[in-house]
User: Fold superoxide dismutase from Podospora australis.
Amino acid sequence: MKTFSLLSILGAATLAAAQASNTTVTGKLGDARPVKNNPVIGEVWVANFDSETVKGTVTGVAAKIGIDWAINVTLPAEKGPFKYHVHLRAVPESGNCTETLGHLDSYVRGDSPPCDASKPATCEVGDLSGKYGLVNGPTAQKEFNDQYTATNVIQLGYVGNRGIVFHDASGARIACATLKKATTP
Ligand SMILES: *[C@@H]1O[C@H](CO)[C@@H](O)[C@H](O)[C@H]1NC(C)=O
Ligand SMILES: *[C@@H]1O[C@H](CO)[C@@H](O)[C@H](O)[C@H]1NC(C)=O
Ligand SMILES: *[C@@H]1O[C@H](CO)[C@@H](O)[C@H](O)[C@H]1NC(C)=O
Ligand SMILES: [Cu+2]
Assistant:
């Protein structure tokens, strides 16, 4: 009986260690592939945030590989750190962030285990904060290139007219805005 318990404990510990080390996962469609065919390099897409909780912009500029992202927002000083993602749907007229549905997960990877930022191709395409880091209030400015997001509608990682969502530390969706093509003056 004692031997059995000891073995169970050892077994459980080994399994836990294996699971803890298993932080990456490949999507059902493989790892995300770099986007190299955006139609217009320099094309600008913007999500405008103008709510009580979040004001500012999340901008995506079509790059030779993927998208150059820039976050420039004010956030509540408390309740962070904040996550930000590309979700599947645009924000509806009602402004209800729940209706943007889940993350853009083009390669069907799921959100567990969490994104390993050292292997961004293995993360959900829309999990920008998982790949490039959380942000804090009261102001957040951050720039990064993401190779897997696209302004080319034929690409799996197409982000046009999808919702960008900020979440507080509890996971609540505190603000959302649709990424729209900037109108040229
Ligand atoms: C690692 O995760 C993958 C995908 O969830 C799973 O198929 C695999 O069995 C896991 N490996 C271990 C050692 O837990
Ligand atoms: C960020 O937003 C503020 C306020 O809208 C603006 O004044 C500033 O120029 C922006 N910064 C960048 C780098 O876009
Ligand atoms: C937002 O949408 C969700 C899903 O459709 C719904 O369950 C929820 O009641 C809506 N919230 C509000 C405030 O309308
Ligand atoms: Cu999200």
Observations:
- The CA atoms of residues 47 and 168 lie 18 Å apart.
- Residues 18-19, 22, 25 surround 2-acetamido-2-deoxy-beta-D-glucopyranose (ligand 1) (CB under 6 Å).
- The first strand starts at residue 44 and ends at 50.
